[in-house]
Amino acid sequence: MARTVGVEEELLLVDARSGEPQALSSAVLALAERRTGKDSVFEPELHHQQLEFATEPRADMTELAEEILRWRAEAAASAADFGASVAALATSPLPAKPVIGEGERYSWLARRFGLTAREQLTCGCHVHVSVASDEEGVAVLDRIRPWLPVLLALTSNSPYWQGQDTSYSSYRSRVWSRWPSAGPVEVFGSAESYHRQADALIDTGVLRDKGMIYFDARLSYCYPTVEIRVADVCLDPADTVLLATLVRGLVETAARSWRAGEPPDALPVSLLRMAAWQAGRSGLEGSLLHPLTMKPAPAEDVLNVLLAHVRGALEDSGDLASAESALRAVTSRGPGARVQRRLLAETGSLRTTVAECVARSRG
Predict the structure, then answer these.
(1) 68 three-state secondary structure
(2) Which reaction(s) does the protein catalyse, per the Swiss-Prot or TrEMBL entry (predicted)?
């Protein structure tokens, strides 16, 4: 049976007319809860200008796609009652004045991390994939490390920051990397080693709790899953489904490798950081670092290597044809960063760009 997959998407709340971020999450969340009758789908985030939803665990990717569309539409409908829209943008193209959310946790983050927390108006996409045990989960984490920058490039959707073109495809990844526990990690080797390091990080007093273990991929602290956290939120919901499909393929491929006794590649964290930087900088527009050689290679070639790596798992889950089609589509039109830059070139207006992205966010 195929592993189950769940997706968490963070969305930006923007004024329906100006496109500027709006601090309306409390009102939108309350209305969405009344409309849906559910209190666990939508959740607040660090800033009042964003909200998050989480899907149910799904084994079928068609069902996952339908749920992503449903919750994006529900978020948009609830926001519309307050003159706002929802945009699947990983950073705001227009200037923003982030407003920290309510509650002791967010207040603590603001006090502890200062400007890093106050500026952290970014939207990511987290993919959870079921694992049989922590031991299997850590074996997976050890083996997917070189592939995570490719997922970042594939989902890059944050070229603008405070009204400026950053020259990055995923500037969110650069802003996110300011957190002290964010980024790639070394090979752990065992669940005991993983938990020992996580405990040691918390014991430093720098982090509040396990929820602040912001590794690019980690064991979930509340679900029996591995959680891949490297991606920008995707402008096109079809790209979110592609991401989830490839992540499940990576997890299954890694687990099979572990069961076969194949050791993980012990690439140093310094090289993985270089690969992540390159992915955030160029997206799919230039070269990426090849996951097997850590040498520059055309982005399209690297995507083909990723697909070849997970081909067996995708064939077994019945996802190969849809993944190939979706990969061709995103390679042709580009991820969100390319779409945003093209829209600005065509319209000359960041506000119009945001309005178009609002429409595209609904699929």
Answers:
(1) helix
(2) L-cysteine + L-glutamate + ATP = gamma-L-glutamyl-L-cysteine + ADP + phosphate + H(+)
